[in-house]
Amino acid sequence: MPVDHYENFPVASLLVPRRLRRPIEVIYRFARSADDIADEGDATPEQRLAGLAAYRAELDRIAAGLTPQTPLFADLAEIVAVHALPLPLFADLLDAFAQDVVKTRYADYPELLDYCRRSANPVGRLVLHLFGRTEPEHLEQSDCICSALQLINFWQDVAVDWQKNRVYIPQTDFPHFRVGEADIAAGRWSPNWAALMDFEIDRAQALMRRGAPLVHALPGRLGWEIRLTVQGGLRILERLRRVRGDVFARRPTLGKADWLVLAGRSLTM
Fold first, then answer.
1. Cα dihedral sign for 107, 111, 115, 116?
2. Most buried residue among 41, 149, 156, 206 by CB atoms closer than 10 A?
3. 48 with 89, same domain?
4. DSSP one-letter code for 67
5. What predicted TM-score, i.e. pTM, was given to this entire model?
6. Which domain holds residue 91?
7. How many CB atoms lie within 10 A of CB 258?
8. Which of 156, 150, 154 is nearest to 121 (CA)?
9. 17-28 pLDDT, tens per residue?
10. Where are any strands of DSSP class E within the chain?
């Protein structure tokens, strides 16, 4: 189970009931393409924000009952109507992507979690709406899983994000471990850096474990999809801890052999 970008989330896999594969694929296309506007290529910040504003205008057209002007949003309007999906969740994603264009540092952990609330959690909530499981407890558990996956992606990509002038480790955490952005710039591992990464790994792991009981509330195949997603995230954290947080030497990922481990662990959740 790769833990990277929107592949963090269940995306129309064979474990998802056939009738819901297309809605999930449309949600993925929306999130993936909007994120690409904010993050890929060599567009200027102004061009990126204009592209996201065009997406927002299409959402507004759907909200007003007007016909969208692009095929993606025509598909989106259809699944929103059929499955009564909340449009504000799509708007939250656009807010987060626009924030990525202009904001490159996070003062503290609550500020980072607020970003996760808009950049990751809406996807999980949309999936729960598709399945009609929107009880507050389940939404909260989904938020924990999605935020944890987003944090795991950040911890994997410290060195990658640095090349984009982005640092997602909260600024208040650096002085506690006597490290700083200079260590990232130099690709410098140290015992202090390892201690910082252990601290961040613990945070993501705790969130994931808080959300994990959601798997028992979901119908069969979706429950298994989420089991594999949770176990994939936890497995990446294991890899991060095993290398003592040295993401400068090699970005921890999962391979084909990990599927057996994830499947076995999923059986015991």
1. positive
2. 149
3. yes
4. P
5. 0.89
6. 11-102
7. 18
8. 150
9. 788 889 999 999
10. none
